[in-house]
């Protein structure tokens, strides 16, 4: 009798990871980390650059473990109240996981963590949609930083340019971006070509937990707010 | 319907509305989206397809143009774009915030490519620049669509 193909076994390693499985993996990872490490920090981030963040995380991987992603899943893992937190006081951390934030479990000293986060700052070119940190305007005249082959491309970005004896020339003043206004795709491209960086990727500490202590780094919520929120 | 959803994405003030609409309405799957999740998924799939095709184009160009920047574009920049979109798609359902980060990351590849070309003396390829422009726009459009899932 031929072997039935309908009854064949499927190894778990080949099954597609489902949403619940993925979440359980994160939850279990957080619970494991809570047992392994002595401190937890919540941090916020601005202008996230994944590659830079990975490098920072790799730098600390021997002593720390980072979690970044769904705040809700992280909150559930930690416990949202004193009655279901996985270690005493961790629900306070849970309450501060909101917005663009993540957490790191670590065995590094408080001083070392504070130093590392304070020193971490990466400048990069701003992306479309982010707010310009300054006004950039170009005056009428030759643009010697651009080659003549780029003239059609620059024109496509909305710049009033022409070629004059092989040199790209701005025929009238042109505002690339205004301070505080969102960058258009065209503006972000021009800034990149001009080498102007307007984005600072930084991580800021929000709070610190240890078995016998809880510390806030930010102004605003006090402990009673965290307790009852 | 898809057309209404697309118009909600493309009306953002910092975007070129015509460009956005033209890109999205040319792809049948975006027009058939019934909700923002389907639309975001369709946009990411479109972006991934365009990135793969773009990389193929660049690799073909590498064979005829002896320009190191093109090799960087093809083998590094667009490879990272493809990886980012695949990651974004894998995260979209369970973790749209992370998916958004990957979609944002995908926009860095074409910009890096463009910068490399700009640093190449006496060389400019309009086809590559047009590709980079479109890929950059798709990244931003994708983030706008995913934002609808996060709110």
Automatic annotation (TrEMBL), chain A:
Basic residues compositional bias, start-end: 1-20
Superkingdom of source: Eukaryota
The Large ribosomal subunit protein uL10-like insertion domain, residue ranges: 126-196
Coiled coil: none
CDD domains associated with the record: Ribosomal_P0_like (cd05796)
Major subcellular site: cytoplasm
InterPro entries, alphabetized: Mrt4 (IPR033867), Ribosomal_uL10 (IPR001790), Ribosomal_uL10-like_insert (IPR040637), Ribosomal_uL10-like_insert_sf (IPR043164), Ribosomal_uL10-like_sf (IPR043141), Ribosome_Assembly_uL10 (IPR051742)
GO biological process: nuclear-transcribed mRNA catabolic process; ribosomal large subunit assembly; rRNA processing
CC annotations in GO: cytoplasm; nucleolus; preribosome, large subunit precursor
Record keywords: Cytoplasm, Nucleus, Ribosome biogenesis
GO molecular function, one term: RNA binding
UniProt-annotated location(s): Cytoplasm; Nucleus, Nucleolus
Complex formation: Associates with the pre-60S ribosomal particle.
PANTHER family the UniProt entry points to: MRNA TURNOVER PROTEIN 4 HOMOLOG, MRNA TURNOVER PROTEIN 4 MRTO4
Protein function: Ribosomal protein P0 is the functional equivalent of E.coli protein L10.
Protein name: Ribosome assembly factor mrt4
Native source species: Glycine soja (Wild soybean)
